[in-house]
Amino acid sequence: MNTVPPPPTDVPLPPASGAWREGDSPGRRQWHVRGKPLALEAGGELPGARLAYETWGRLAPDGSNAVLVLHALTGDSHVVGPPGPGHPTAGWWDGLVGPGRALDTDRWFVVAPNVLGGCQGSTGPSSFRPDGRRWGGSFPYVTQRDQVAAEADLADVLGIGRWVLVIGGSMGGMRALEWAVTYPGRTEALLLLACPAAASAEQIAWANVQLHAIRSDPHWRGGDYHDAAPGHGPHAGLGLARRLAHVTYRSEPELQARFGSAPQGTEHPWHGGRYQVESYLDHHAAKLVRRFDAGTYTVLTEAMNSHDVGRDRGGTKAALSRITARSLVAGVDSDRLYPLAQQAELAVGITGADRLRVIESRYGHDGFLIETEQVAALVRELTG
What we know:
Layout: E1 30-33, E2 38-39, E3 45-46, E4 50-56, E5 66-70, E6 109-113, H1 144-158, E7 165-169, H2 171-182, E8 189-193, H3 201-215, H4 235-249, H5 252-258, H6 276-291, H7 294-305, H8 316-320, E9 326-332, H9 340-349, E10 353-359, H10 367-370, H11 372-383
Parallel strand pairs: 5-6, 5-7, 7-8, 8-9, 9-10
Antiparallel strand pairs: 1-4, 2-3, 4-6
Helix pairs in contact: 1-2, 3-4, 3-7, 4-6
């Protein structure tokens, strides 16, 4: 007997894309549009590049108290604050930013941009090209260096010549690293969390499966799906990609302790039902397809695959030797996606990093987002 409950009939179909769109509430976002085309590392250029960003605190008259916070793959500019109009989710580092917190907004001016290629207000596949059509599948290949170049332009406009601190984890850590290598004179302190000097073969392999899942979805349409009706976007492919990624973000001991092989409620896995861990992955997939864009997922995943701080710089050692910032490098002891050996390489190669710091967590790679108190201690160590 099949004990799986019937699917709910009152849940609206997801939009073709969960991207922020023109006409949606801006929420706390501000925007900067680049005045000239952005030359891209892979060739060509991107015209009219726009970055959405949020700020907290007040910039000092001399611009000397600015902190740059860089988000990971499915993050955005909404680092802190509740969900609401324009912001589908609560802040992803809510415990780190605010009055009296490690990034004290009574002291620091905190800036968080949505990455170039993103889908929450910055130019990406869901955005309109200058000719009025959406970029879709024709959005150009961008690298971490292109994304940092766009962020440097934003810093110029804001009047920030030098960041007191640049902080990021995972994909955000890749960009933070690029900031410190490309603009050493503009990066006073650096906090790298759960990121590598270069993407490894295994990390690229995991990403490849996720890219294939999205591009194999019949609703992908070569990336030109953004104006499709609700329910007709590449949700199945994006959901599969999210399920796979989420397993790599957590640790096996945590999943075993939380779920084991227990069935989900009254469902029976022998008769079409799910295990608890399957329900958990389904939940995260369903959430993502309503707040994210499949095209952005592919663009940012390819940018992460391209990450290599030593490219065209004489190798990793030579690139890291450019960094002049006071630096801390931390990894998560249970991270199986970006293991500690990768952060150890950074800690050894960066002159200003005294030793590898280890975040103790059962949560795997996501520990850098969850273990807020341990991250806060690292922030305070750098900022005094």
